[in-house]
Amino acid sequence: MPRFKDQAICLREFDWSETSQVVVLLTEQHGLIRGLAKGSKRQSPSSIQRYSGGIELLTRGQVLATTSPTRELASLTEWDLQDDFYHLRRSLPAQRLAMYAADLAAAMLAEQDPHPRTYNSMGTLLTSLTDAGHRQAALLRFQWDLLDDGGFKPELQRDVLTNKPLPAAKTYTFDPVAGGLSIRNGIADWRVRRKTVDILRSAEAREALTDFDEAALTRANKLLCTYARSILDRELPTMAMILRD
Fold first, then answer.
1. pLDDT at 186
2. I need a labelling partner for 147 at 20 to 30 A (CA). Which of 26, 47, 64, 226 fits?
3. Does the pLDDT at position 71 exceed 80?
């Protein structure tokens, strides 16, 4: 039964009983972990010491846990709260974006498959949401990193139907099945503006996104959200907060 200590961000938490919780954690070195924290809600001195600060949604801490191939849930034995991202509790728009990001990561990543890049990107996003003027840029960076890290990076440079370099055009189409851009129109394809493509290419090149206006960034975020919905073949409840704003 491997035991490990790691940095973690809480993506989901549910009451298991009056004194225990089931949590979904995104850890830095061990990937997505679903675990049972027995006694985490007790107010006894020993429980308060073991679960310092409590395990809450969208918080970061150090976790000590044990996994077993015969159990669906890991056993969480310690939690040390390090960052409660309190600014998310003071801004509904920031909290909504953070909840979507947490929902998406929990749905897209396989359990116990390390994704340190996604973990770091999630931490950066939660911190960056304190700045209202850069929230859409921060969310776009996270969505791109998650898709890229998970092996779903959309093709932006070559036509996914002909495998030829994409020519300059005012509009393109996005083929969700082929996973990228084309200049041909298919029945299920989505029309994409050139500016949206420029934003995505900047994200791919790790360039600054501050030069793009919020409306254009919002369109790019909606495109990546719709693409993620196609990959998952279902709409997560929090996707409505991105797609229908």
1. 67
2. 64
3. yes
- Give 47 or 17, the one with higher predicted confidence: 17
C-alpha 207/C-alpha 216 separation (Å) is: 16
Burial state string for 103-113 with b = 16 or more CB within 10 A and e = fewer than 16: bbbbbbbeeee
In this structure, the answer to whether residues 140 and 164 fall within a common structural domain is yes
Give residue 98's domain range: 89-243
Q: Which of 83, 87, 84 is nearest to 131 (CA)?
A: 87
Query: Is the same domain home to 71 and 95?
Result: no
What single string gives the DSSP state of each residue in 137-161? HHHHHHHHHHHHHTT-PPB-SB-TT
For 172-210, the pLDDT digits (tens) are 999 988 899 999 876 667 899 999 999 999 999 999 998
Of the residues 41, 56, 84, which one is the last residue of a structural domain?
A: 84
pTM for the full model? 0.93
Instruction: Please report, for the domain that includes residue 72, its CATH number.
Output: 2.40.50.140
Structure tokens at 220: 């790019």
Verify that 77 and 124 share a domain, yes or no. no
Q: Any idea which residue has 């809480």 for tokens? A: 10
Tell me how many domains the chain contains: 2
Residues 6+ positions from 157 with CB-CB distance below 8 Å: 165, 166, 201
Residue 74 makes CB contacts below 8 A (sequence gap 6+) with 33, 34, 35, 36, 65, 66, 67, 68
